Amino acid sequence: MRPRSIEPLFTPAFIALGIAELSYFCAVGVSIFALPLYVTGPIGGDEAGAGIAFGVFAVSALVLRPVAGRLADVYGRLPLLIAGALIAAVSLALLALAQHLVAIIALRLLAGVAEAAFFVSGFAALADLAPPTRMGEALSYNSLGLYLGIALGPLVGQLLVGLWGFAAAWTGAALLAVLAAALSLLVGETRQGGPPERVDRTVIHRPAIPLALGFMTSLVAMGGFLAFASLHAARVGMPAPSLALFVYGATVVACRIAFARVPDRVPSLPLGAAALGGIALGLGVVAIWASTTGLIVGAVILAIGVSFSTPAFFTAIFATASPSQRGVASGTASAALDLGLGLGPILLGLIAEPFGLAAAFGAGAAVAGAGAAWTLALRARSRPRPSSPERTSARRACRPRRRSGLG
Hints:
Layout: H1 12-40, H2 47-55, H3 57-75, H4 78-95, H5 101-129, H6 135-142, H7 144-164, H8 166-187, H9 209-235, H10 243-258, H11 262-265, H12 268-288, H13 292-318, H14 326-355, H15 357-382, H16 389-398
Helix pairs in contact: 1-2, 1-5, 1-7, 1-8, 1-9, 2-5, 2-9, 2-14, 3-5, 3-14, 4-5, 4-8, 5-14, 6-13, 7-8, 7-10, 9-12, 9-13, 9-14, 9-15, 10-13, 12-13, 12-15, 14-15
């Protein structure tokens, strides 16, 4: 168990960053609810088209996240926070004018540019602001903005669509993104010192790649759920289709608050593997129990797993990076978000079209289960292999004690 730290965490900049992210992800939450219904409704598409429209933002975000990480290290976090939020506002506002799936896909690619800039610089700023011994706790609290946004954004989206239509939902989401840009000014620049004297051209943090692969499997599963939860809720007869997403987001928020210090006190990889197991179980329940109750129960179990997966994997990843590498490490790790949240809806949408949503959710559960096995294998590989008791004792006597983020 790690000793409890008294280093300050809730500084004004830390709080402002969380509120800015809450506004940004409320805008994202509106699109999570409205986009699948918009594609399969007024646009006249099917589940495969909805999955592509939902996940295609990952293409541009995946390409640009590593570049955004390097830019955040060279030019600072604040310019990318503001630019990302404003680009998101433009992409959301123009959805109100889109009448064809091709136009929606183009705007979602623009949303990926925004996601790369805002998300990477936000995580880099968090790493700047958090005391090293409280990184897991900081990640837990900081992510409340994301999951409150996912919980509240769909409710806002359903309200706006119900009262004034889809155009009002896209306009409201764009205004929330503009508010995120304004709130970012309160965060200020968090990068310590000026630009590095020697600019490293590397945009991939190689030590993070195996960890990011495990993290990605959680996002494939989660992305599939987010993309199709509102459609599944409507088809099983849930009176308010946004309720499943609200329960999911609210559960993650409650767990992140209640267990904020767990990622700093439990070894990262076993915690990540257990989280992936919970995600697999939750999606399995949704796939098998096709009812309102089954969807809610599955969403709660899934959310419990998700509440620990991101802090566990990001704690492990940031432990492999020096302060000057945090932007690149954040870009590499968050590239897993693009692959997961992008590939998940697309692949599961292709499964849902011929086989149904239950089969798609089942496939997501299988991916999460495979990720749990991979993460446990990484844990086993990271353990030292003593050759003999004598040599082990000698090495322990000569080496200083050091806690690894992978442990």
